[in-house]
Design goal:
The protein is mainly α. The protein folds into two domains: about 120 residues, Cytochrome Bc1 Complex, Chain D, domain 2 (Orthogonal Bundle); about 90 residues, Orthogonal Bundle (Cytochrome Bc1 Complex, Chain D, domain 2), CATH 1.10.760.10. The longest helix has 14 residues. The chain is globular.
Length: about 240
């Protein structure tokens, strides 16, 4: 079994079978209070009408570009992301589990069908072409191997060895819903730095995936965040 295969098996087991105390901590308020986060481990794949999504995307293009590639580096690239991941992000903006000055207002006006259609449209677009990332750099080593001494897991365990999503192997091991994990390759260093900061300080905490990223981001110092962001931007 390859080291990448072992990493994927380990991550799958950890995500699907989070310790009971971790789940209890994430749930926060008593049972009678509405949940403030969404458990994505049972998230079903999302489908939608690509043409309807394209027709609805004119406003989105102002920030994310007409082909889903961001016009400025503070915004994420959407092209080629899984429809399920994109739908979940819109859903968390709409229900207030994730907040943004622009996106919260935009999502508030969308119906469930709108969100599915937009997600399907951006998923249908070609992703940004691969770059020339330096696997021997500090960022490359963190992404591919992690840093056990600091408690940093390898990013490739969930995001794939090239940042384009995980390689799913046939296995009897329970596997998490890979479609809820984002493609990272080619996202700008500025956007990745902001996202890791938001995970670390709890600004992004509305899903079970975000809870995991909160713990991961807190193991990273500023220099490592910069190194990782630079590596991902050049993938």
């Amino acid at each position: 079994m390859s080291s990448t295969h072992r990493v994927l098996h380990l991550v799958a087991a950890v995500i699907l079978w989070l310790p009971a105390f971790s789940i209890a901590a994430a749930e926060g308020p008593p049972a009678h209070t509405p949940a403030t986060w969404t458990d994505l481990r049972q998230q079903q794949p999302i489908t939608g009408d690509v043409q309807a999504g394209q027709a609805k995307s004119a406003v989105c293009a102002a920030c994310h570009g007409p082909q889903g590639l961001a016009i400025v580096p503070i915004f994420p690239n959407l092209a080629g992301q899984s429809a399920t991941y994109l739908y979940v992000q819109l859903m968390t903006f709409k229900n207030g589990q994730r907040n943004d000055l622009v996106m919260s207002g935009q999502a508030a006006a969308l119906s469930d069908a709108d969100m599915r259609n937009l997600a399907a449209y951006y998923a249908s677009l070609p992703a940004k072409p691969a770059g020339q990332a330096d696997a021997a750099s500090r960022g490359g080593r963190l992404f591919l191997d992690g840093d056990p001494a600091q408690g940093v897991p390898p990013c490739q365990g969930c995001h794939g060895p090239t940042g384009q999503g995980p390689r799913v192997y046939p296995s009897n091991t329970p596997q998490p819903p890979w479609s809820t994990f984002p493609r990272l390759h080619g996202q700008s260093a500025i956007y990745v730095t902001k996202a890791l900061g938001d995970f670390s300080n709890g600004t992004r905490s509305g899903t079970s995936n975000a809870q995991i990223m909160h713990n991961v981001a807190q193991t990273l110092g500023d220099a490592d965040i910069q190194a990782l962001s630079t590596y991902i931007a050049t993938q």
